[in-house]
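Schema walk-through. Below, the input block comes first and the output block second. Nothing else is stored per chain. Lengths vary across the set, and this one has 113 residues.
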Amino acid sequence: MITIYHNPRCTKSRQTLSLIENKGRDFVVKEYLKNPPSKDELKEVVKKLGIKPAELIRKGEAEFKEYFKGKDLSDDEWLDAMVKFPKLIERPIVIEGDKAVLGRPPENVLELL
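--- output ---
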């Protein structure tokens, strides 16, 4: 089963979802702004992506600029920041099994399909 962390207002997220739909695969949509992931869920996501939590941060968001710009946070602190401010989570994230990819560009999802 494929899971997509999705923001319907995001063009790249919509394009990624469309690629999944076009492949006819079963999937679950997690609108992470409405139902933010827990810290444990985010730990699993970054593990599957093979990145550090800081690499999953959207640095253009107002919350980043106001609270985090120029700060050197630990992995745990970045995870806490994403739980508190889910807008900071880069999107879309597509997960299948023990693998995950960022849908930037959307074609990255084809690695999983």
